[in-house]
Amino acid sequence: MLPTMQLPLSSTEHTPTLNACVIPHALRHGAIHGALGSRGVGESMILIAPHNPIPLLKEVEAREETFQVKYLQEGPKDWHIQFTRTA
To answer: How many domains in the chain?
Structure first.
């Protein structure tokens, strides 16, 4: 049996939160895209990142789905970003 990795997903006021800081770097973007893919139109998630994730934001812009991006906290230690699926 293959080992499984449990994503560090929690819920804040019914908005799931993904803490990317504890996901191994090689898996991080894939895990975030998987979590974004689970959101329906109008649903949000909060990402906690160890830096301003500009490369990831460019990847999100290239997705078929669209997301509103709102910075909730900008450093200095963590960045908290809310993604809300709009289409």
So the answer is: 1
List C-alpha distances in Å: 74 to 37, 64, 77, 81.
Answer: 24, 27, 8, 8
CA terminus-to-terminus distance, the chain: 37
Is 9 inside a domain boundary? Answer: no
Residue 14: the pLDDT is 77
Predicted local distance difference test score (pLDDT) of residue 9: 47
- Output the pTM of the full model: 0.83
Interhelix angle 25-37/54-61, nearest 10 degrees: 40
Whether 29 is covered by a domain: the verdict is yes
Closest C-alpha to 18, from 64, 50, 66, 65: 50
CB burial of residue 42 (10 Å; 0-12, 13-18, 19+): exposed
Token match 């929690």: residue? 10
